[in-house]
Amino acid sequence: MHDGGEAFARRAAAIAEEAYSRLVPFFGAGPGNDVVEIVCDNSIDGANGLTQAQPFDAIRLFAFSPESDTDLARYDDWLRLLIYHELTHTLHLNHAGLLFDIVNSVFGKSWLPNNVLPQWFIEGLAVYAESHFTGGGRARGADFERLLRVGALEGTLPDSIGGLTSNPIMPPGGTWAYVFGGDFLTWLAERHGDAAIARFVDEYGRHVPLSLNIVAKRVFKGDFPTLFSAWREQRLIAAQVLVGERQRLGL
């Protein structure tokens, strides 16, 4: 940070401590013995952040408030939203069982089961958390809702959960995993409870990687392809109901 950055960094540190005190009880564990290093960078004119969990925990925050026409513009406090999002990544990716803790203690932090989850889950979980723990968040934002509604009406919703792993040119493009993953996980939380989300993170971290649907059946009572189909159908119905309401009003 250049001159004047100390106040920003102090505020970021205070919010990070607040977020840590709320997220750790929710997920049931912190990042082990690691100190989470946070770097505030004002060299890029764009609101965003980056998180790494290997070989050590670090978060890089871009100290630039979101522009009004971006998806991050839905916030009560943009810095708080950003920190909750990135710290969720830290706690999520570090969640591992005893076997992995032993391996990592010997060879360094080299194997984290949650790190191989698909992008739609990793980013979707952080979007869910930023919306659950702050007064803003993209899962409750009009922009994401619009993209979901248009996708349902124009037939561009992913046909299967496998489609969530792509980043096509069509809208929402690079935010594909954030929009659909965030809404899908928010839907799961509404259907099965917030505690089920934390339980999935915990149980998957204790299993052999790639056991995604095995853990989903235990926690959500169904595999992800089946759950995704139910979510997709609900989105399609909701969009058609809204169209019907608007047409009856003559719009």
Would you give an account of this structure?
The longest helix has 25 residues, at 224-248. Strands 1-3-2 form a three-stranded mixed beta sheet, covered by helices on one side. Helix content is 57%, strand content 6%. The protein is globular and about 60 Å long. The protein is mainly alpha-helical and 251 residues long. The N and C termini lie far apart (50 Å). The relative contact order is 0.11.
Q: Got a strand count?
A: 3
| Class by SSE composition | mainly alpha
Strand order of the largest sheet: 1-3-2
Beginning-to-end CA distance, first to last residue: 50 Å
Supply the number of helical segments: 9
Q: What low-confidence regions span 5 or more consecutive residues with pLDDT below 50?
A: none
The gross shape turns out to be: globular
* N-to-C order of helices and strands: HEEEHHHHHHHH
Radius of gyration: 19 Å
What is the mean predicted local confidence, pLDDT?
86
The percentage of residues in β strands lies in 5-15%
